[in-house]
Amino acid sequence: MAVNDYEPGSMVITHVQGGGRDIIQYIPARSSYGTPPFVPPGPSPYVGTGMQEYRKLRSTLDKSHSELKKNLKNETLKEVDELKSEAGLPGKAVSANDIRDEKSIVDALMDAKAKSLKAIEDRPANLYTASDFPQKSESMYQSQLLASRKFYGEFLDRHMSELAKAYSADIYKAQIAILKQTSQELENKARSLEAEAQRAAAEVEADYKARKANVEKKVQSELDQAGNALPQLTNPTPEQWLERATQLVTQAIANKKKLQTANNALIAKAPNALEKQKATYNADLLVDEIASLQARLDKLNAETARRKEIARQAAIRAANTYAMPANGSVVATAAGRGLIQVAQGAASLAQAISDAIAVLGRVLASAPSVMAVGFASLTYSSRTAEQWQDQTPDSVRYALGMDAAKLGLPPSVNLNAVAKASGTVDLPMRLTNEARGNTTTLSVVSTDGVSVPKAVPVRMAAYNATTGLYEVTVPSTTAEAPPLILTWTPASPPGNQNPSSTTPVVPKPVPVYEGATLTPVKATPETYPGVITLPEDLIIGFPADSGIKPIYVMFRDPRDVPGAATGKGQPVSGNWLGAASQGEGAPIPSQIADKLRGKTFKNWRDFREQFWIAVANDPELSKQFNPGSLAVMRDGGAPYVRESEQAGGRIKIEIHHKVRIADGGGVYNMGNLVAVTPKRHIEIHKGGK
Q1: Where do the annotations place Zn(2+) binding?
Q2: How many domains does the chain contain in total?
């Protein structure tokens, strides 16, 4: 083969991510060189040309190697970025975990480069036997040419191939060094971020613990700020203060729950562990703050309910209190309202009673019998009544008090002893009343022990230091009705109250009720045939140091007064008493109202008994009751309720007046009546009904 027939190989730079191939390759132009030409003895004729070709190819190879080395770091890190992108890692790591994921990519690439390097180094070596081969290659090549006297082509291709391997190994080693440094830098950065995260987490935890220890203080401070932002109340009542405080706490809870919802969203979308921990701690603190506020709200609600109950009880007490001055005069008073005005003045009423007693005494002296002498008429002012009220005297609960001695109370009777024994004292005269049309007539009636009982119960009044009043409590004869309270306002504190050492309570004067008027009438005796229905009356004794003489009190409660049933009730179907535990209660069935309407009952107890007897005898309604309840109902008792609807000892259905009797509601108006369970009855009254 002629020298001029030689074709040099080509340089190929291959960018491979650890595939085991050379980064720089030399590809010979031919794989066989044939039979070299005859070389005569003497110096080799190929040395000069061979060296020229070597230097030419070596220059190209060195330049390629130099270019790769110059941009090697950028290219290597670019490989890392490409691998991160393929793995779905963020372009810029912000957390220690992200950095460690990036480090794993770097370490994997470094391992791949090391495998490629090992693949090069494990190939059968011809000339490439030492790391300094690139420096020795030219001299080795020249020596081979001089020694062999062969054609240079084969030697040249072998040297170029080995140099390409050496340069590839150098590139891999440089990349491995770059990746190793990068890996270490990432490790250091990850550790730094982890240390910073631990420090930040410790700060967050310390802040959380401090805030948790001061939840109550923070909650109170926020409530104070919210309260200060509102218009200030001037001399607020406890009820106003409770209302304001309840509003503040309720709003604070609503605000905290909004924050709670937003914070829960942060937990779900937290960008890193630290932010998630912050949100988790905030969630716990919000739970504590809401619990603190709820505890406050519970206390406020409990106090509000307590005060409402006190006010309700006070209202019930006031509505059932007969207030009178203890000045020895004759007075009439309406329950919960005040003194009933006397048309011609209080003195005229006292004189009318005295005249009636005198007339009755004269009549009895000449012809002993049951006689009554009217002394006053009670009329009800319709202008003060609402449309739903019964505009008759029957709706007025009143009491009349007078000196018991005028009705014949013996001065020698030990009232205290009689009262302790729950005893009675016989009186020759008592007071009574009778409704006649729009007027109620008050009379003095003689007693005979048969038609008119002589015995009058005795009670002792007790001084209430809190109110400054003398009081007597009269239990109601109806289970669901509150007791009656009789009070007397003394002219001065009792003798054992020392004004010099204590400040006596000054009770308020008894107000005047303008809804009714007492008009004295001329004393006219009348004979009473049969049995007279008497209202409740008592003889009230007072402590010796009170200076108050015994008082006879006649009081009238509409429940204890005869009356006719009115109203139509309502049609009912299905489980009638199923509504007794809900809402207003179960209405009076219209078929029962039809049976009772127009009938006269001697008192409320009589009406109740007749009502339940009528229900028990109704062919449809009676099917809703068990044999035990039916047996009780046929005797005039109310049916039993299930245990969950009972209240203490109250275990039977009760009848409730929707419009209170004290407010003018009809006692026997069946449109004003509903059947309720004891539990529901209590709930209705707690609601102020």
Answers
A1: 656, 681, 685
A2: 4
